[in-house]
């Protein structure tokens, strides 16, 4: 499990373009310690994991999401009830990480947009590509300054563009979102 945690920490750090030194400064640890954690040579304490989770804005349980899986499944499979909640629900968006690890070229996210919710701040996708498919409900996306209404079965793909979303409808919208490279 130590290697899995270290790989996740490295992937999260790299997705944010943070150096080892920058993350160490933020959590009050040495570069040597963090390097050993990322390589699975030492296990971080719960206090260290808590500090790292706070910097990455993920719950501490994120690092233990595959702890109960068999060794054969770990890093390959995410069971439906084990998809880890990520992000904040403040704007009406609930997300769960579907990817079994963050070391690949993309991540999958299950996003549920509450009825009558909206994002009011442009979300940058600089340096990444986003895509997805609406699996239930309707969702409005603003891409390139134009609003598009997407319904069940509709899909989208864009890169290096800021976007907004809104769900002005009476029902939640569910989207499977793909992001490359991983950002969580």
Task: Describe the overall structure.
The chain is an alpha+beta fold and 184 residues long. The chain folds into 2 domains: 2-64, 434 Repressor (Amino-terminal Domain); 80-180, Jelly Rolls, CATH 2.60.120. It contains 4 helices and 10 strands; from the N terminus they run ααααββββββββββ. The strands form 2 sheets. It has a 6-stranded antiparallel beta sheet with strand order 1-2-3-10-5-8, with no helix packed on it. It has a 4-stranded antiparallel beta sheet with strand order 4-9-6-7, with no helix packed on it. A hairpin with a 6-residue loop joins β1 (84-86) and β2 (93-97). 23% of the residues are buried. The mean pLDDT is 88.
Gist of the model:
The chain has 184 residues and is α+β, with helices and mostly antiparallel strands. It has helices spanning 2-15, 20-27, 31-38, 46-56; strands at 84-86, 93-97, 107-113, 117-118, 129-136, 138-143, 146-151, 155-159, 163-167, 173-180. It has 4 helices and 10 strands; from the N terminus they run ααααββββββββββ.
Order of helical and strand elements: HHHHEEEEEEEEEE
Average pLDDT, all residues? 88
CATH topology of the largest domain: Jelly Rolls
Work out the number of β strands.
10
**First-last Cα distance:** 19 Å
Poorly predicted residue ranges = none
- Total count of helical runs of at least 4 residues: 4
Percent of residues in helices comes to: 10-25%
Please report which band the strand proportion falls in: under 5%, 5-15%, 15-25%, 25-35%, 35-45% or over 45%: 25-35%
Characterize the biggest β-sheet: 6 strands, antiparallel
* CATH top level assignment of the largest domain: Mainly Beta
CATH homologous superfamily grouping of the largest domain? Jelly Rolls
- Which structural class is indicated by helix and strand composition? alpha+beta
How many domain units? Answer: 2
* Broad shape: globular
Q: Report the radius of gyration as a whole number of Å.
A: 17 Å
**Which strand order do you get reading across the main beta sheet?**
1-2-3-10-5-8
CATH architecture of the largest domain: Sandwich
């Amino acid at each position: 499990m130590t290697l899995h945690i270290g790989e996740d920490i490295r992937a999260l750090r790299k997705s944010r373009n943070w150096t080892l030194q920058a993350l160490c400064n933020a959590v009050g640890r040495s570069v040597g310690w963090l390097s050993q954690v990322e390589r699975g040579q030492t296990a971080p304490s719960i206090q260290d994991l808590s500090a790292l989770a706070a910097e990455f804005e993920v719950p501490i349980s994120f690092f233990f999401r595959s702890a109960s899986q068999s060794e054969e499944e770990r890093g390959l499979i995410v069971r439906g009830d084990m998809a880890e909640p990520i992000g904040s629900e403040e704007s009406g968006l609930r997300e769960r990480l579907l990817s079994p690890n963050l070391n690949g070229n993309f991540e999958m996210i299950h996003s549920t947009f509450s009825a009558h919710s909206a994002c009011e701040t442009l979300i940058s996708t600089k340096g990444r590509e986003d895509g997805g498919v609406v699996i239930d409900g309707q969702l409005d996306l603003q891409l390139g300054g134009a609003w598009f209404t997407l319904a069940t079965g509709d899909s989208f793909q864009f890169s290096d563009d800021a976007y907004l979303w809104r769900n002005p409808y009476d029902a939640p919208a569910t989207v499977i979102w793909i992001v490359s490279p991983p950002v969580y």
